[in-house]
Amino acid sequence: MSVETKSSNKVLEAVTAAIEKYGAKQEELIPILNEVNRQLGYIPTEAMEEISRRLKEPKSSLFGVASFYHMLSTKPRGRHVIQFCESAPCHVVGGREVFEALKEELGLEPNETTPDGKWTLITTSCLGVCSVGPVIVIDDDIYGNVDARKVPEILARYE
Amino acid sequence: MKMTRSMVLVSSDPISMQLGAQEVFEALQENIKAFGLEDEISLTMIGDVGRHDALPLVIVYPEAVIYGPVTPEKVPYLVEEHLYKGRIAEDLVASVRELSGRIAWLHARKGTLPAEQRIVLRRAGIIDPTSIEDYILNDGYMALGKVLTSMTPAEVIEEVKKSGLRGRGGAGFPTGTKWGFVAREKSEKKYIICNADESEPGTFKDRLILEGDPHSMIEAMAIAGYAVGADEGYIYVRGEYLLAQERLKKALQDAHEMGFLGKNIFGTDFNFEIHIHAGAGAYICGEETALIESIEGKRGQPRSRPPYPTTFGLWGKPTVINNVETLANIPPIINNGADWYRSFGTPNSPGTKVYTILGNVNVTGLIEVPMGITLREVIAIYAKGMKNGTNFKLAQTGGSSGSIIPASLQDTPMDFDSYAKAGVSLGSGALLICNEDTCVVDLAKVLLNFFRVESCGKCNPCRIGTQRAWEMLDKISKGQASLSDLDKLAELSENLYMLSNCGLGQTAGTPLRDILNYFRAEVEAHIRLKVCPAGVCKMEELIPHS
């Protein structure tokens, strides 16, 4: 896979920064994982081991938490992550057509990453911007009132 | 604070920002300066105003004119006409619609347009959410001052009980009673939690309150803390709500600096601290015991109840958990009294309800109206009718706690008891209004897909049941099911309700029950005729096994 994995130094740096920010307490585990995920794009095994050591929490429970929440990923993802809302409010106003267009344009099924490591496509539950559905989110950018024809133009904005 | 003659507000929800709200804001700044009006006019970015059809919006008070969509090129004309010459720039006014709170009120008083009744959203979109001064000028922290200096904790609980306020997260449990449970617990430590993990599909009312009026949460939580004897609170805010988190952080900081949080608030011996805890994407964390687990840093899996959080909550201590909308009702109840609150809504469901209007209608958005209006009224008045003259088929009331409401129930008053009597549920207040192009099997499949993805996996009935239900619906949608599958589906719906550990599984069967109750003929058409009457499902030939 050509998706970039992170070097040990970077991982250590991210973990240290996150723990310094929130403190080495179990109740801060989710914010810490979230921060590492934001910095690195996912939570590498090495990061998990390091957090486990510093918080004195078993790796199993750490993995349990990291794999439970949608915003945390234990696998590398592409440079840009596309979240497609598959909940009912977006679905009834044309979401399905948008999803078909996305899959075709990227050549991806949900949870897959393009071979060049540029895109990861994931589906998500409601994002709370329903009055402008269908909605897709690319990284932190929210696109509302998307229709299938707009998809190529939206994707073209990303390097 | 400076006195100004006009107040200009720019919408800055994510979509507005996407469409250039920042540039519009800067152009306004520049042009207001160019006309030498900067001392007379205040200019503010206000977040989400609950209206999304003509973004970005520019709203000018006191005239309450809504302009939109506004581009930077139109700004010089707008400033010259309205702010300099004092004439409304008619050609830039957003096409008529009355979904915007204060604005709706002003029109309503002239007797032309239907009114909303804004209590929990009374400040959202009108004040600067990053300014504690704005909040204070609009009756902010008045209720907290009142309870701390002139009411006993028991009196506060009594007032909330008398108001009849019921939880707005979906279940409708009486808030005063819940507070009473925690108040009578003998414990050194108690907690107040604000459930801001809004993730019911189609619901974004809490986001508007958090983004537009963050101090109201702090004030309401402190009041709750005083009433039940808690000195610490958590706001569990959905991980995806970045702007809300930012606004809350700023609000907490300002409240601290001004002494509304911390030690000896209002010079009394009452202390209160609030922490923000962001979620990381899990619908189930809206369930109160899952939320507690998540704050404690664990997988968000619901606990077995009893014991309820009111006796064994966060870190085993008695805990009040209230939804954002519920809490937002508290300060107005304290300020104006229970009798005032009871003058809105119905006797058993007093007050207002925020609804999000979505789907195949002309106007989508958000309204706050008294409890007890009907779906027909919402569609005709606030949603301006169905899109392209299509017919109303059904409404889905949102997420796990809602129902599928057929057209025959559209005149049932929307309040907790009338809906319960009709065998349906109000849910979180999302009204997904669908026309005849919606297939009930397809819709139920989408809803069950949501449940099977979001099931936490702790208990078997839910983990396996939601998956099986989805598979059966998938079969029906492809014309591959038999009539006996419908009996299995009905049984599964019953089992989910009876056997699941928490609300997610218990209500996951609701769409199944509803489509079999109200739309059985349409479901059977998929099986008997291998036809989808709405033309949505693609039938597949079944390849016979050899």
Describe the structure.
The complex is a heterodimer of chains A (159) and B (546). Chain A has six helices and five strands, in the order ααααβαββββα. Chain A has 159 residues and is α+β, with helices and mostly antiparallel strands. Chain A has two domains: 8-66, no CATH class; 80-155, Glutaredoxin (3-Layer(aba) Sandwich). Chain A has a five-stranded mixed sheet, with helices on one face. In chain A, a hairpin with a 5-residue loop joins strand 2 and strand 3 (119-124). In chain A, helix 1 (8-22) packs antiparallel against helix 2 and helix 1 packs parallel to helix 3 (45-55). The mean pLDDT of chain A is 91. Chain B has helices at 14-18, 21-34, 75-84, 102-109, 132-137, 142-150, 153-163, 175-183, 205-212, 214-228, 242-258, 288-295, 324-328, 330-336, 338-342, 375-382, 416-421, 440-454, 460-477, 483-499, 503-508, 510-518, 520-528; strands at residues 6-10, 41-45, 58-61, 65-67, 191-196, 232-237, 273-278, 319-323, 352-359, 365-370, 392-396, 404-406, 430-435. In chain B, the strands form three sheets. Chain B has a five-stranded mixed sheet with strand order 10-9-13-11-12. A four-stranded mixed sheet of chain B has the order 2-1-3-4, with helices on one face. A four-stranded parallel sheet of chain B has the order 7-6-5-8, sandwiched between helices. In chain B, helix 2 packs across helix 3 and helix 7 packs antiparallel against helix 8. Classes of the chains: A alpha+beta (159), B alpha/beta (546). At the A-B interface, helix 2, helix 4, helix 5 and strand 5 of A face helix 1, strand 9, strand 13 and helix 18 of B.
